[in-house]
Amino acid sequence: xxxxxxxxRKAKTREKAYKLYDELGLYVIVSPSGSRLWRMKFKHRGxxxxxxxxxxxxVSLRDARKLRDDAREVLAEGKNPVLEKQRERIRAEALAxxxxxxxxxxxxxxRRRDGDRAWAPSTAARCExxxxxxxxxxxxxPIHEIEPIDALTAIRKIEKRGKLESARRTLQLAGAVFxxxxxxxxxxxxxxxxxxGALLTPTVKHYGAVTEAKDxxxxxxxxxxxxxxxxxxWALQLAPHVFVxxxxxxxxxWDEIDFDAxxxxxxxxxxxxxxxxxxPLSTQxxxxxxxIRSITGSNGYxxxxxxxxxxxxxxxxxxxxxxxxxxxxxEMTAHGFRAMASTLLNESGKWSYDAIExxxxxxxxxxxxxxxxxxxxxxxxxxxxxxxxxxLDSLRSGATILPFxxxxxx
Length: 410
Known about the structure:
The protein is an alpha+beta fold and 410 residues long. The chain has helices spanning 5-10, 61-76, 81-97, 100-112, 121-132, 135-139, 148-160, 164-183, 213-224, 230-242, 246-250, 283-296, 317-324, 336-348, 353-359, 367-376, 378-396, and strands at residues 18-21, 26-30, 36-44, 47-56, 257-258, 263-266, 277-280. 28% of the residues are buried.
């Protein structure tokens, strides 16, 4: 006869444990202490085995029968329900450990070592910081339990603080973490997939830059008159000649500079596009570097921190110096030297677009084209670097006519 709830509840304890049978292998063990434990006996490949379903009444009669039927379905597939239950427990424990923060850290570690796609140190630090903003919201949640509303609520906390661009970028990074979890078989789908358009759109802000030829000379003379820390002045003096990204300039090391060949080779791991970048050095650039080396020596960073030579100059040093010179962030930034060079070099009509783009280390999606142009435009880039430095000297000296048509100073 099948069991009933009343029969289980009224079962009296005995000196020894005994069994109350239901159907299809399901039974209850009534122990001397009064506990009632669900068991199921079955045969797998001719060997009798037992499966535990918990205790009554925490697991009701109906639930126990459902668990028994599920186990019988597993048996029908030729599998061992005991082993499948163990595997399910291991999977559940693994999923519980796979919190958003844990997988985000794993993803960031991968991106730091991701070959040609690896993040530059500054990019990695920024991305890790943005993802850390989610630690107190979805960070401790198992990633498979996070739903779109959870992710959106977490991101909107950043948005409400007026950090619109940070919110937008954090949403992108969170999506990348979720897609990584999908790719590593710990998540079925990205919960941020349909959140596009949910956030406020930030106003695009361009880097402040002096791009009018008539103002370049004024800026260069202001830099020469800078009365702050000497290392900062040298960095500001070199920046317009080489027009690399500020992070690349700050992280320059002496062992990257070949004075004999007049080339600065920036390793791939420091570049935004994850490709080595060769910067031809004009005689003016060489002179500035030699002056620095005569004071600091030729080991470590070219522009070390004031606090420690083992660290590079702070990322805000050059912008702070430009503010001291009277240039607002909307007028000139450390990144603005790139826009200055790009604008005037293109306006000159003297240099090919590809040579200028290579000098700026902009990426080319066509790998064959990129490899071809990297080689064919080197001589042009060397000549362009010297021409550009000569032009800067001319403007610094108060030139009123530039050596190309259509642009005048004053």
